[in-house]
Structure formats: structure tokens, C-alpha cells
Specification:
- The protein is α/β, with parallel strands linked by helices.
- It has a single domain, classed as 3-Layer(aba) Sandwich (Stationary-phase Survival Protein Sure Homolog, Chain: A), CATH 3.40.1210.10.
- About 25% of the residues lie in helices and about 25% in strands.
- The strands form two sheets. A nine-stranded mixed β-sheet has the order 3-4-2-1-5-6-7-11-8, sandwiched between helices.
- α4 (about 130-145) links the parallel β6 (about 115-120) and β7.
- α1 (about 15-20) packs across α4 and α2 (about 65-75) runs parallel beside α3.
- The two termini are about 25 Å apart.
Length: about 230
């Protein structure tokens, strides 16, 4: 069984290396963007060629978006792919973020083709810095849980890891509903320039939703349907 690993932070981002470490006992192939594509949503490339650099038999750098990576991976690099894992994204992809996120788009593209997938993100609680070893260990836990669960056709998993201070209790894995509360929208205006200043940590957190679960210090898992 081949598992494709991808992301939207770029092939050299620490998050995808942490994901590979979490999957070290499985056959994985990295097919990820050459550069960062955070927030690109489900953008795909159709009107120009996409350059693919084979770094090794298990690693390909793609001159395209996360959705492009999934398309190329499942059609040319590893047609036998049974899972697509995307992440670990440096930043949350909670609630309505799934419509914006390139991380999530890579897995949604897999679901289009009937391939199982998990998008994994790590909320950033400033000024804390992500401990990728901890993130790897949490990812191992959650993937062990998800691989044993049935996944309805046309669905995928979206996982968000919390950002905890040292010494806090281990997070629980909580299956919950995605928030539909809007992201904070605020701009600082300088003449004709609008600078986005929405503060992620101040978004609404309806009790029981993935935003609330993750902000409360637990691992939020949502089932997303096409």
C-alpha cells in the first residue's frame, strides 16, 4: 500500500518531515510543492506545464499547488495510492478554513477520486513555537485511531492539533463538528492599500465545534463530506 504525503507549506517545511517520521513504518512517497502555497484553496494548474523534480524514488518536488500534487501523484507517480495525507500544516485549518486551505484541498482532491485522506494541521498560539517532535507523537496517535475507522465515500478527515504549553496534560482526541462561524475580518487601511489584520485566536468558538475543541487544548477531528 502506498501513502502519498503532501502539504501546502512546501516540500522542505518541517511539518511534512514530521509527518514522514510519524509514518516511518509505512511505504510513503512525498509529492509536495516546491514552494509555499498557504491559503491557495483548491487552485489547480491547467493552462501551463507543471515541472516535477524527482529527488529520489520516494520524493518529488512539484512546481504547482497542493491539489496539483495529488493529481500528479495518483495518476502518474503512484496510481496504486490508497491514502493521501497532507500536513503537518504550521497553522490551524479549523471550521470554514477548509475552503481556503491548500492543505485540506490536497486531501479533498483525493476524495474526488475515491481515495481516503487525512489533512493534519497544528494551531499556532503565539508566542509559542511548534515542537515538531510532540506534533509527530500526536499524529501517530490520531492516525492509528483513524486508520481503523470506516470512511464514507466522498469524505475525508480534517485534524487540528492544539498548541499547548510545556507540562500541560496530553490532549484527548475529540470527534466533533466543524465550526461555521466566520473568520475575523479586519483591515488596516493606508490610502489604497488594505492590510489584513484579523486575529485567528479571536475567532468565535461555538461550544463543541472543532474551533472550541482545539482552542481548549484537545485534538479536533472532523469528518468533511464533499
Amino acid at each position: 500500500m502506498t501513502i502519498i504525503l503532501t502539504n501546502d507549506d512546501g516540500i522542505d517545511a518541517p511539518g511534512i518531515r514530521a509527518l514522514k517520521e510519524a509514518m516511518k513504518s509505512d511505504k510513503t512517497v512525498i509529492v509536495a510543492p516546491q514552494v509555499q502555497h498557504s491559503g491557495c484553496g483548491h487552485q489547480v494548474t491547467t493552462r501551463k506545464p507543471i515541472k516535477v523534480i524527482k529527488r529520489s524514488p520516494e520524493e518529488y518536488a512539484v512546481g504547482g499547488t497542493p491539489a496539483d500534487c495529488t493529481r500528479i501523484a495518483i495518476t502518474h507517480i503512484a496510481p496504486e495510492t490508497q491514502w493521501v495525507l497532507s500536513g503537518i500544516n504550521a497553522g490551524g485549518n479549523l471550521g470554514t478554513d477548509v475552503y481556503i486551505s491548500g492543505t485540506v484541498a490536497a486531501v479533498r482532491e483525493a476524495a474526488f477520486h475515491g481515495i481516503r485522506g487525512v489533512a493534519i494541521s497544528h494551531w499556532l498560539k503565539k508566542p509559542l513555537v511548534i515542537d515538531w517532535e510532540v506534533a509527530t507523537n500526536w499524529t501517530v496517535r490520531v492516525l492509528q485511531e483513524l486508520r481503523d475507522r470506516s470512511l464514507p465515500q466522498g469524505s475525508f478527515w480534517n485534524v487540528n492539533l492544539p498548541h499547548l504549553e510545556t507540562g500541560k496534560p496530553e490532549p484527548e482526541i475529540v470527534f466533533c463538528q466543524p465550526s461555521i462561524d466566520p473568520l475575523p475580518v479586519k483591515f488596516r487601511v493606508e490610502r489604497d492599500l488594505h492590510h489584513y489584520q484579523g486575529e485567528y485566536s479571536k475567532r468565535d468558538r461555538t461550544p463543541g465545534t472543532d474551533v472550541d475543541v482545539c482552542f481548549s487544548g484537545n485534538i479536533a477531528v472532523t469528518l468533511i463530506k464533499l
